[in-house]
Design a protein that fits this description.
75 residues, 15% helix, alpha+beta, 2 helices, four-stranded antiparallel sheet, single chain
Amino acid sequence: MNDDKGEGVAIANLIGADGCSIVGWVYRWTTGAHAVMWDVHGPQPVQEIRPDLTAEQQQEIDFHGLKRIGSGEGG
């Protein structure tokens, strides 16, 4: 994706429950919005984000919700 053409730019990796696998990415769009893009396996539990995002960015992508994927916990 190309930020010069109004597309998103990957700004962080989503690290899986094993603490080392990249399961997705956080993208920042030219509008300032943030979004998650998963790898080919789809949504998976996320342990951490590298590099870390601000509290506001984490809230926008619902980081706490990403950590609960597949756990059976409600929102």
